[in-house]
Structures are given as C-alpha cells and as structure tokens.
Design goal:
117 residues; single chain; alpha+beta
Length: 117
C-alpha cells in the first residue's frame, strides 16, 4: 500500500511535495509562519497485526528513533531556505545510492524534477 499524499502527523497536515524512488519530501505549514519540509527514505512495513487489526504490506514514514538516519526536517527556523535544504538532502540521498555510472543520470533526473517544481 503506497504512502498517502496527505498525512496527519504531529498535529499538522503534511502534503507530498515530491518523490523519486523511495525518497520523499513532504511539506507542512504550522501555526504562524512556520513551514517545514521532511525528507525521508520511505520505509516498507511487513504484513502484520496490531491491536487485533490486520495490516497489509505498506509504506511508512521512518519511526521517531530513525529520524536523523532515515528522515530529516528542515524548517524556516533552522534554515534560511528550508525547501532548498530539503531538495539538497534528497539529491544527496539519491546520488549516494546510485552506482558511479548512474550518478550523473540520477543528478540530471533530480535537477529536472526540481526545475519542474
């Protein structure tokens, strides 16, 4: 089951801003002028049961304990341009995963995606 494009989390509604492969960027606007972008590696949760309810194979945000390793938050309180910081992090993750021969192609794909947004 794919990750929803809008998610209620931590008292805010996050909307998918962009995604390539298993790297996603979600955006939320908090109270006042706060804006945040979350960049993360989409997690795959196995089929299971929790509280008597069955769940299929599904995508998920990383857990709180995985934040900083598989997920990062960029806000207008922590970064002058949180969107640019989030896009740079997504690009970094994608480029690190690409083999040396595919890095240039991945870099071009991310740059095209950024220019479309």
């Amino acid at each position: 089951m794919p990750l929803a494009t809008a998610v209620n989390r931590a008292g805010m509604v996050y909307h998918q801003f962009g995604r390539q492969s298993d790297v996603a960027i979600y955006c939320a606007k908090g109270k006042g002028p706060r804006i945040e972008y979350e960049v993360f590696k989409v997690q795959i949760l196995p089929v299971g049961e929790l509280g008597g309810r069955s769940y299929p194979l599904r995508e998920s945000f990383p857990s709180n304990s995985e934040w900083g390793e598989s997920g990062w938050t960029f806000t207008n309180n922590s970064d002058r341009d949180p969107l640019a910081a989030a896009l740079a992090k997504a690009k970094q993750i994608l480029c690190l995963r690409a083999s040396p021969s595919k890095r240039n192609n991945t870099q071009n794909t991310v740059n095209q995606h950024v220019s479309i947004i």
